[in-house]
Amino acid sequence: MFEDLAPEEVLAAVASTDYSVIEPIDLTGVKRIDAIRALERLVRAAQAQLAEQTAALLADRRRDTPFGLGDPFLSVAAEVAMARGMSPSSGVALLNVATGLRPMVNVRTALTNGVISEATMRAIVRESDTLDPAAAADLDAAIADHLPGLTPRKAAELTRSLVVTIDMEAAAEREKTERQNQYVTYFGEAHGMGTLIARGPAEQLLLIRDSLQKHADTLRTKGDPRDRGQIMLNSLYERATGQVVLDGPDVHLDILLPIEALNGQAVAAELGGHGPITPHLAAQLVDHAGQTWYRRLFTDPTGTLVGLDTRKRCFTGLLAKWIHTRDHQRCSQPGCECRSREIDHITPHRHGGPTTQTNGQGVCRLSNLVKELPGWQVEPGDGGEVTWTTPTGHTYTSPPPRAHRSSARHSGP
Ligand SMILES: [Zn+2]
Prior knowledge:
Elements: H1 7-16, H2 30-64, H3 73-83, H4 88-101, H5 105-112, H6 118-127, H7 133-143, H8 152-166, H9 168-180, E1 183-188, E2 194-199, H10 202-221, H11 228-241, E3 252-258, E4 269-271, E5 275-277, H12 279-287, E6 293-299, H13 317-326, E7 342-345, E8 360-363, H14 365-370, E9 377-380, E10 386-389, E11 395-398, E12 409-411
Helix pairs in contact: 1-2, 2-3, 2-4, 2-5, 3-4, 6-8, 7-8, 8-9, 10-11
The structure holds zinc ion (ZN).
Zinc ion binds at residues 87-88, 331, 333, 336, 338, 363-364, 366-367.
InterPro entries: DUF222, HNH_nuc
Region (Disordered): 378-413
Organism: Aeromicrobium alkaliterrae
């Protein structure tokens, strides 16, 4: 019922429709499904516009940046990221997709008209990012007839095979660079659990998994009561650390305990590098630890750690650890969720900014780089909040560290 509306009319029509009219049982929800389809079409058109505006901003900025002042790519990526409440690394990814989409007229039109989803568009652009603009236009022409109903996975596979026929060298180059992009990373979850992700050459990872599975199956046939997943993880832990699981972890733990916990009050503790855990688990980690060096950092109700040497120029030792733990090991730039790698003086040391917990904030490497770019400014407020100003004069304020970071405020220039 919303099919004939222009995108700008959809939202108002969907909001003002009366869905309460009794429908025959077998047709219940027809209007709502119509509304959902219309909204999805609207979202896709908006996503195409977002990509277009993003790519055009970079083109404008490149045109207007005086020769010799460097490529404004990183600044534009970070500005777009802040405008959309994301991390600068997400901004880089968005800008790469937006510029990759530009030469693909058919793909762009399909997204604008709601024929493909944004995920399908991203898959096509991502899998063809080694092509030059002319070759990308060839790919766009070759894929045009396949677009209706194309899912992201099928789009990725189809694009990959088309890229091989269009530019075999580019395909081989992509495979070579991708196989270098290896990492092991950690995501903290609820209940004192986490997920370890390893990315690497497929044949190596398959061997690791098969070896762990085989070991688990052997132990289980001998009567080991643990389930397969537990044995696999225990075995991975033992092989990677050289320690036996039952001995407890031989590592350094920072456990931040609010002082209220001493009075038996129910408050969350904080495990360095992970996030909030229950005081129960904190006590258990300390009690059952083997060769564990742990440090309990007590904070008062305002979240302040007492009695530190504040005369150092660099954030080191206990102060650095405490700021990282206070900031949940996350970057302080509004919208950024990357792991903090460095501690930054909010008021720069060269402007008399002290090396204290209130003047220190954890930032990721990219955010630390972005704030030094031309036209960027970061300033502390009276209440502990920090305001980031971008080259266009837009400002983004992060709340004081102990408050929830998700509520960054924004105002225009
Ligand atoms: Zn960051």
